[in-house]
Amino acid sequence: xxxxxxxxxxxxxxxxxxxxxxxxxxxxVTNNVTEEYIExxxxxxxxxxxxxxxxxxxxxxxxxxxxxxxxxxNDEIIGYAFVAVANGYGGPIELIVALESNSLQxxxxxxxxxxxxxxxxxxxxxxxxxxxxxxxxxxxINFNDVALTRDGGKIxxxxxxxxxxxxxxxxxxxxxxxxxxxxxxxIDLNNEEGS
Amino acid sequence: MKEIIEILKNGxxxxxxxxILLLGLCPTLAVSTSIDNAFGMTxxxxxxxxxxxxxxxxxxxxxxxxxxxxxxxxxxxxxxxIVDLTMQAFLPxxxxxxxxxxxxxxxxxxxxxxxxxxxxxxxxxxAILDAVGMGIGFGIxxxxxxxxxxxxxxxxxxxxxxxxxQVPALSENPMPIFILPMxxxxxxxxxxxxxxxxxxxxxx
Lengths: 195, 204
What we know:
By secondary structure, chain A is an alpha+beta fold. Chain A is 48% helix and 22% strand. Chain A has a six-stranded antiparallel beta sheet with strand order 1-2-3-4-5-6. The longest helix of chain A has 51 residues, at 3-53. Chain A is elongated. Chain A starts with a helix and ends with a helix. In chain B, strands 1-2 form a two-stranded antiparallel ribbon. Chain B has helices spanning 2-14, 25-31, 35-58, 68-90, 92-98, 109-117, 124-154, 168-172, 181-197, and strands spanning 156-159, 162-166. In chain B, helix 1 packs parallel to helix 7. In chain B, a hairpin with a 2-residue loop joins strand 1 (156-159) and strand 2 (162-166).
């Protein structure tokens, strides 16, 4: 390879490397500046989501072990909230399910309420899962009644959107079942440790 | 002065990226479900387009021909990531509703197209004008499309939470098909047909 040829080969490589380095610096700076704000924005989003369910709450914490949110009022747990993912008609539906903590001790699981975080259901049909007329049906309902009316439950399906409705119902039922076991297990553990 | 108007006019009317060149249709059709989205998308595209045109025009004499496309893409991807992070930090709701289409600006043909076809051959002031013209042209097109889709699909016109007006019969029985992807194709094709028939845009 002649000297001229070598130069022709190497200049483009060096130029591209240089551009990539400059852009990496810019991205590093931007990331550092925005990181804190993005965290805050996410935190606010979680808080307002939980507030929708527990209007009286004053603080929350995320429990990594149980993968759920503990909701506090005056430093006492008043409820639990966790994410349930339903297999909807147009893709995953993300829901927040809230439970009242004292209902667990009474051995009767009462769902405090649900709200839809994100979804991609058909506008005008499956999209109605976000409307209060559907999601309010879960408010204060006994866990055993979480099923569509045709299956003997207490939730009316949205007409024309049976798949979306039953996806939500299934996700709420299964996730609550799973989480209640986890919560009870943890409460037991804590009691044993305490005694 | 005449040149300035000529370059701006070129982007807004004569070779409007969406209505004439039919470039960047993916974000145009996907996010044009509400006027809010249209404004957010326009702002993001305008920022990336102006910045990338400036940078490309500045380094146009140094870029080795063989690596010019990778260099353009790196520059555009950096700018888009900056926009994406800034939106997530300060406008989380807008960022949520525009979703994947902000990162996808990287592969928006309007931006790479203008870098390659215009900015890499012209001086900085002209490159800025071209970006402004093209950006506004994109914004006008996406705003018109989302105006019709929002009105027909929901019956209301809401801009940033303020209700501008309501179409009486339509708000009770909206036509959700216009919010669906199919409605986007219907609206853009009817819009193009009308513009062509009325002679606002000419063939060729």
